[in-house]
UniProtKB/TrEMBL annotation:
Function field: Probably involved in the osmoprotection via the biosynthesis of trehalose. Catalyzes the transfer of glucose from UDP-alpha-D-glucose (UDP-Glc) to D-glucose 6-phosphate (Glc-6-P) to form trehalose-6-phosphate. Acts with retention of the anomeric configuration of the UDP-sugar donor.
Xref: Gene3D superfamilies: Glycogen Phosphorylase B
The protein's annotated pathway: Glycan biosynthesis; trehalose biosynthesis
Record key words, sorted: Glycosyltransferase, Transferase
Species in which this protein is naturally found: Caldimonas aquatica
Pfam families noted in UniProt: Glyco_transf_20
NCBIfam families: trehalose_OtsA
Family statement: Belongs to the glycosyltransferase 20 family.
Signal peptide: none
Origin: domain of life: Bacteria
Record keyword Cell membrane present: no
Presence of keyword Glycosyltransferase: yes
Annotated protein name in UniProt: Trehalose-6-phosphate synthase
Binding partners and assembly: Homotetramer.
Length: 469
């Protein structure tokens, strides 16, 4: 295979286990092809007068067979591109939260500037046959910027978050420009069928795109292959972690502590898209409607700190803390607290232990591109005595994980009923559902995802590209 060049907002050293499944999976391909990974270093350089540092500060280092190329950002670029356009505009709009979007024009200017900077820095590193794979909403216009500089490589883009329906997307000022920029790619990948359909409907109605073949759209003088490539996890890597020392320790401690109780778990970033307050209210409803669950059902909610410089994230944190305090005050006993809320990132090596010890996992986002926690929970279970996944129908994962108990997180009573059903599900039914789910996440794991995307990119119709050139 040709050399693969990955570009994402942040890069991770693929050799470090803590980097997680995506880094490991990408790392494998990058390593095999002697590839390159470019992104922001995570460092902010304060200019003398808040100005931007000069260019040419790309830091290049080797991680095994992989070249890592990282760029520092100026304070202004970081605040407008990353905190601004990516996290205050695209993230809320793409998660259907127009009410939380802040359409400040300085953000868009910063977003364009940083994408231009990435393009200028990346171009000299590219060889003509490289396959370039750009990741996520931070870098949508990158291919368009590279094309302007004369780049003719095959370039693919994968959107890790949802793409909203046309009328929500159309509320974004400059949406025509943003979606138009996707046509500079050869392949555009989405997490779910629903997202791919939103793209199809949008480009046909707003950009008068022509459908020129299966999943092939032509507009702006270019042809793009756009379809879903649902991301998976590295099931074997996760299974190995599950049997590691730290995970076993966590599992045994939890089993011991909760031997007479029913343990439920929630593991998320503290993001408003994850539906945490809705989840706590559904759990409260469980305690109110099913008295037998009192003194028994215990929810451990791990919510890791994230994007705390953005107001909406401080608001959701306060709301969650208030709700957890309320439910513990109303229902808690001297020897039992219904919710244990932990505002921290759980060490990756311990995560499978907690998953395995929990009878039920609550994965109930209001909107989510995929949600890998749902898949990790399945991978961590003991097939002989598996737990039950309660999953929001609005997570991309719900398209694949049909044997989970699917819920509408806005329906508090309905979700409480599903949690009750999960807690009382007979062993044979748990086993049958788990077996089907495990099969699905195994056949569609992260390696399948990476291979199918890169194969699509490698085999993109050369004739169509010629016509476009
Ligand atoms: P995220 O929104 O970050 O990712 P998710 O897929 O749920 O969401 O989690 C990514 C990883 O973070 C998982 O490996 C998970 O275990 C870990 N994680 C989450 N919360 C944690 C916590 N409190 N402690 C420790 N680890 C935690 C985006 C999209 C998703 C999409 C992924 C991958 O929003 O929809 O599934 O990218 O494409």
């Amino acid at each position: 295979m040709a050399r693969v060049v990955a570009v994402s907002n942040r890069v991770a050293d693929p050799r470090k286990a803590a980097a997680g499944g995506l880094a490991v999976a990408l790392g494998e391909t990058l390593n095999a092809t002697g590839g390159l990974w470019m992104g922001w270093s995570g460092k902010i350089v304060e200019g003398a007068e808040g100005g931007r540092p000069g260019e040419g500060e790309l830091k290049v280092q080797q991680a095994g067979n992989v070249t890592l190329a990282t760029l520092d950002l100026s304070r202004e670029d970081h605040d407008t591109y990353y905190l601004g356009y990516a996290n205050r505009v695209l993230w809320p709009v793409f998660h259907y939260r127009l009410d939380l979007a802040d359409f400040n024009t300085a953000y868009l200017a910063g977003y364009r500037r940083v994408n231009q900077l990435f393009a200028r820095q990346l171009l000299p590193l590219l060889k003509p046959d490289d396959l370039v794979w750009v990741h996520d909403y931070h870098l949508i216009p990158l291919a368009a910027e590279l094309r302007k500089l004369g780049c003719n490589n095959r370039i693919g883009f994968f959107l890790h978050i949802p793409l909203p329906p046309p009328l929500i997307l159309a509320a974004l000022p400059g949406h025509e420009w943003l979606v138009g920029a996707l046509f500079a790619y050869d392949v555009v990948g989405f997490q779910s069928e629903a997202d791919a359909q939103h793209f199809s409907r949008y480009v046909q109605s707003e950009a008068h795109a022509e459908v020129v073949g299966p999943d092939l759209y032509r507009a702006f003088g270019r042809t793009v292959l756009a379809r879903s490539f649902p991301i998976g996890i590295d099931v074997d890597e996760f299974a190995a972690l599950t049997h590691g020392k730290e995970a076993r320790e966590t599992y045994e401690t939890m089993r011991e502590q909760y031997s007479k109780r029913q343990l439920l778990v929630g593991i998320d970033r503290l993001d408003y898209s994850k539906g945490l307050p809705h989840r706590i209210r559904a759990f409260q409803e469980l305690l109110a409607s099913y008295p037998e669950s009192r003194r028994s059902a215990t929810l451990i909610q791990i919510a890791s700190p994230t994007r705390e410089d953005v107001d909406a994230y401080m608001d959701i944190r306060r709301e969650l803390e208030h709700l957890c305090g309320q439910i513990n005050g109303d229902y808690g006993e001297l020897d039992w607290m219904p919710v244990r809320y932990i505002h921290r990132t759980l060490a990756r090596k311990r995560l499978p232990g907690l998953c395995r010890a929990a009878r039920v996992a609550l994965v109930t986002p209001l909107r989510d591109g995929m949600n890998l926690v749902a898949k990790e929970y399945i991978a961590a279970q003991d097939p002989g005595d598996p737990g039950v996944l309660v999953l929001s129908r609005f997570a991309g994962a719900a398209e694949q994980l049909r044997e989970a108990l699917l819920v509408n997180p806005y329906d508090t009573q309905g979700t409480a009923r599903a949690i009750h059903q999960a807690l009382n599900m007979p062993l044979e039914e748990r086993q049958a559902r788990h077996q089907a789910l495990l099969h699905r996440i195994r056949t569609h794991d992260v390696h399948w995802w990476r291979r199918s995307f890169l194969e699509a990119l490698e085999h993109v119709d050369a004739a169509a590209r010629q016509r476009a050139a």
